[in-house]
């Protein structure tokens, strides 16, 4: 006796229906924007990345409709567009919140507290990695290194930096976002919603007063090495010690114990290494079997 594929729980992979079209007024508006973007490139297909940001700014994530739109205006196949949209993590593939809260859990941030921050936010928000709060305000995810290791542990909201975070400060941050209280990144442009951010990333100017000027350059901690190389004295302290901030809770203050050899930033503390740690002296490492 044979069993059918449905009885075996096997999907026959029915082809998806065509992506639904944008409403006419939306498509007309997006086509105008797309023409402006495409005109910046000698080869139209080079406009695919900003166009994916553009369609993401429309719906908050890259939908099949958005990918079909990109394929149409760039004369690409949907397979080509899909291949790009699924490669880059900055493109969302499913609906999510107004604020994408990314906790860096790469090596340096992880050891400086990123793992603890991510764990406490999961518990605080009641969502896992990639999950969105029920009110649609916050999507939590762990992210890879954002080249801000000198401000570790780093949290990013819609790609704006929140440096030197603690579990308590990160929880306050998401509470403020959910309650609609104003939130200011540590450096760079003021915060805006994910859709607004996507439109800026598509290449349209940030019209908010002072936003462009606020984009700024490297922060003080990033410049210490340069100052030392120039023979300048490094500042006594580059960032606020994480235990001394005005908002930290008592449990966070207990984490860090400044020593007389206070360091330049919260992560410049001298660490025991194999060369300095008497419990783990340096020495040749024998291969197994030697
Ligand atoms: S490891 Fe977190 S910013 Fe580099």
Please characterize this protein's 3D structure.
By secondary structure, the chain is an alpha+beta fold. Among the domains are: 24-85, Orthogonal Bundle (Arc Repressor Mutant, subunit A); 96-191 and 218-237 and 264-284, Glutaredoxin (3-Layer(aba) Sandwich). It has ten helices and four strands, in the order ααααβαβββααααα. The protein has a four-stranded mixed β-sheet with strand order 2-1-3-4, with helices on one face. Strand 1, helix 5 and strand 2 form a beta-alpha-beta unit. Helix 2 (48-59) runs antiparallel to helix 3. It is globular. Residues 241-290 have low confidence and may be disordered. The protein binds FE2/S2 (inorganic) cluster (FES). Residues 104, 106-109, 145-146, 148-149, 152, 154 line the site of FE2/S2 (inorganic) cluster. Residues 104, 106-109, 145-146, 148-149, 152, 154 line the site of FE2/S2 (inorganic) cluster (FES).
What's a quick, concise take on this entry?
Helices cover 36% and strands 6% of the residues.
Question: What small molecules does this complex bind?
Answer: FE2/S2 (inorganic) cluster
Main beta-sheet annotation: 4 strands, mixed
- Mean pLDDT over the residues: 81
Strand fraction equals 5-15%
Counting DSSP E segments of at least 2 residues, the number of strands comes to 4
How many individual helices?
10
| SS-based class | alpha+beta
SSE arrangement, N to C: HHHHEHEEEHHHHH
CATH topology term of the domain at 96-191 and 218-237 and 264-284: Glutaredoxin
Terminal-residue CA separation: 60 Å
The CATH superfamily of the domain at 96-191 and 218-237 and 264-284 bears the name: Glutaredoxin
Query: In which range does the helix fraction lie?
Result: 25-40%
How would you sum up the global shape? globular
């Amino acid at each position: 006796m044979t069993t059918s594929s449905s009885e075996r729980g096997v999907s026959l992979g029915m082809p998806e229906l065509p992506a639904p079209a944008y409403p006419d007024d939306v498509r007309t508006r997006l086509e105008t924007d797309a023409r402006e973007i495409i005109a910046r490139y000698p080869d139209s297909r080079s406009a695919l990345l900003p166009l994916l940001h553009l369609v993401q700014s429309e719906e908050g994530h890259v939908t099949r409709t958005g990918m079909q739109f990109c394929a149409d205006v760039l004369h690409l196949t949907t397979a080509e567009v899909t291949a790009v949209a699924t490669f880059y993590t900055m493109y969302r593939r499913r609906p999510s919140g107004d604020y994408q809260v990314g906790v860096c859990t790469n090596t340096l941030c992880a050891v400086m507290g990123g793992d603890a921050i991510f764990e406490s936010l999961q518990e605080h928000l009641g969502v896992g990695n990639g999950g969105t709060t029920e009110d649609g305000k916050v999507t939590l995810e762990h992210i890879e290194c954002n080249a801000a290791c000198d401000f570790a542990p780093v949290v990013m909201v819609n790609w704006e930096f929140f440096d030197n975070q603690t579990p308590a400060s990160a929880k306050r941050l998401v509470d403020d976002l959910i309650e609609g209280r104003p939130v200011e990144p540590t450096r760079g442009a003021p915060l805006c919603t994910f859709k607004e951010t996507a439109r800026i990333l598509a290449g349209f100017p940030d019209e908010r007063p002072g936003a462009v000027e606020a984009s700024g350059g490297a922060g003080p901690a990033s410049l210490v090495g340069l100052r030392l190389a120039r023979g300048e004295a490094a500042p006594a302290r580059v960032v606020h010690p994480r235990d001394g901030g005005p908002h930290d809770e008592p449990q966070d203050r207990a984490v860090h114990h400044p020593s007389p050899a206070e360091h330049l930033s919260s992560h410049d503390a001298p660490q025991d290494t194999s060369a300095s740690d008497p419990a783990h002296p340096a020495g040749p490492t024998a291969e197994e079997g030697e």
